[in-house]
Structures are given as C-alpha cells and as structure tokens.
C-alpha cells in the first residue's frame, strides 16, 4: 500500500544544507500498524509529514519516492496530492489544541475533510460528524458537536481529532505522538481506540511515539530511527525481545520499569 524509498529531506535555511532524513526506505501493508521510534530530532515527524504531503516549503528539498497505492506522492501533481490529503491519508498530532480552531464549533471542524472534498449537504455532514464522534468513543456526540474546543478535556479533544481524521474513511492514518500530552489512563483509552479503528475499519496506522511500551503494545512492526536514518526495522516482538543494534538496546533499556511498592 505504501512504499517509501530512499527518502531524503534537506534543509537549506543555513549556509550549509542539513540532512534531516537520510535514505529512509520501508513499506507498509494494508491494515498494518507500523511504529516509528527514535530519540528527539531523529526525523520521525518529518518522515510522517512528507507522507501526509504536509511538508512543502521553499527551503526544504525532498528526494526519493513515496508511492501510495500506485501514486508517487513526491512527484505527482499538486491536484492529485490534494485529492488524497485528508481523505485516503489523514494525520493526527500530539496537541489537538494547535490543530483545532478555537473559535469554530467542533462539529464544523470534524466535517471539514468532507466539505473540502466536495460534500455540501448540511444534514449529511452533520450525520457523518455525529457518527464519527460516536465512533471515536464520544458518547455525548450531540453536545460535543455544538461545543468549542476549550469546553472539552484533553482526551476529548484528541478523540475529536481522531473523529475528524476518520470521517473520510482514510486508508492510512498517521498518528504523530497522539498520546504524549495525555495522562496515562486517557493514553490507554486512545491506544485502545486506535486498535479498534484498525481492527474494525482495516485502517493502516503509522504510529510515532517516544513511548516504546506503547509501541510494543500496539504495533506489529517497528522502525528505529537515529539521526535521520533507519538503524533497525522488523517485527515488534523480535525487536523488543532481541534488539540487534546498540542504539535500540539503549532505547529499550531506557524504558522506565515501574515497581510496585511492597
Ligand atoms: N524547520 C526546520 N529547519 C531546520 N531544521 C529542522 C526544521 N524542522 C526540523 N528540523 C530538524 O530536522 C530533524 C528532524 O526533526 P523531526 O521533527 O522529524 O524530529 P522527531 O524525530 O520528530 O523529533 P521529536 O521526537 O522531538 O518530535 C531535527 O534535527 C530538527 O532539528
Ligand atoms: Mg516529532
């Protein structure tokens, strides 16, 4: 479904070009949950953003190939990319508040992807939004629909983001640190929601996280990134049980072990 080949991302905002993502190659199958782990600055978000088509700046060059269902996203027309964005490929982020518009009601924002892709029927839009909010585990969907972002909790806002991403029934959901800003209980609920989405809607999920124990719980396969490169990739169980690279061993060793008090 997705094949990333020799992806390279360079910045030219200083006198010397800076390579932030270097020769990244991986594939993702339909219905798969793939994790990306690695220290801060290792290139996880840039990789994700370029797949979502959200990295378009004059001082950045991207090379290589990102092929999604036969279409090369790095080399296709803008119009072709736009047809896909927020529809076949959707993305959620760490801090929903930065993505939600504070002065627009939730319902309007959840409907956005459908509106952008041409749906005009108000009743249909509302019906789909209520359904997406309910599917994202928000029981009081009617009230949430009419609320403003500041009237919701952090966990509810993240569910709203997921509803807004899922309303267009994407084939690939990219989740960049979607639970990092949430407390542990809510984190677990969001992970459960992602698992359910994957199971019921067969959505593939690219899950980026600092939290290796979450990645281990959720993902079938894992990429380990360091300094813009993939240093190791494989089945999650293999990587966690038997890491080959020193860097992966260090990352795994850094997972805090919480001991119960006696
Ligand atoms: N606008 C920019 N200009 C120059 N360099 C940038 C820019 N944005 C990111 N970088 C650099 O690219 C590298 C990769 O950044 P990226 O955001 O992908 O890291 P990350 O793995 O997602 O980190 P984190 O875990 O902190 O989110 C970093 O070294 C960063 O400094
Ligand atoms: Mg990041």
Care to describe what's here?
The longest helix is centred in the last third of the chain and has 18 residues, at 184-201. Helix 4 (106-116) crosses helix 5 (122-135). The protein contains eleven helices and ten strands. It is globular. It has a six-stranded mixed beta sheet, with helices on both faces. The chain has a domain at 98-169. The protein has helices at residues 44-51, 78-84, 96-99, 106-116, 122-135, 141-145, 154-166, 184-201, 212-218, 236-241, 246-253, and strands spanning 2-11, 18-28, 33-38, 60-68, 71-72, 89-92, 172-176, 204-208, 221-226, 229-235.
Quickly list its features.
binds adenosine-5'-triphosphate; single chain; binds magnesium ion; six-stranded mixed β-sheet; 10 strands; 262 residues; alpha/beta
């Amino acid at each position: 479904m997705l094949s990333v080949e020799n992806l390279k991302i360079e910045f030219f905002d200083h006198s010397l070009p800076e390579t932030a993502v270097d020769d990244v190659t991986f594939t993702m199958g339909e219905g798969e949950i793939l994790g990306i782990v690695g220290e801060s600055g290792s290139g996880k978000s840039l990789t994700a953003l370029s797949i979502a088509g959200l990295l378009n700046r004059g001082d950045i060059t991207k090379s290589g190939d990102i092929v999604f269902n036969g279409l090369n996203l790095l080399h296709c027309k803008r119009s072709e990319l736009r047809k896909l964005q927020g529809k076949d490929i959707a993305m959620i982020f760490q801090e929903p508040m930065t993505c939600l518009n504070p002065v627009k009601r939730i319902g309007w924002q959840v409907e956005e992807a459908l509106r952008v892709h041409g749906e005009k029927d108000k009743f249909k839009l509302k019906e789909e939004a209520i359904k997406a909010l309910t599917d994202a585990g928000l029981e009081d969907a009617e009230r949430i629909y009419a609320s403003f972002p500041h009237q919701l909790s952090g966990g509810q806002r993240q569910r709203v983001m997921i509803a807004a991403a899922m309303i267009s029934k994407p084939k690939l959901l990219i989740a960049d640190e979607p639970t990092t800003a949430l407390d542990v209980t809510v984190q677990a609920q969001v992970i459960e929601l992602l698992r359910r989405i994957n199971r019921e809607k067969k959505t593939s999920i690219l899950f980026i996280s600092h939290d290796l124990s979450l990645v281990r719980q959720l993902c079938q396969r894992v990429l380990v990134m360091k300094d813009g490169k993939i240093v190791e990739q494989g089945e999650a169980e293999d990587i966690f049980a038997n890491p080959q690279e020193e860097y992966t061993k260090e990352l795994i060793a850094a997972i805090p072990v919480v001991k119960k008090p006696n």
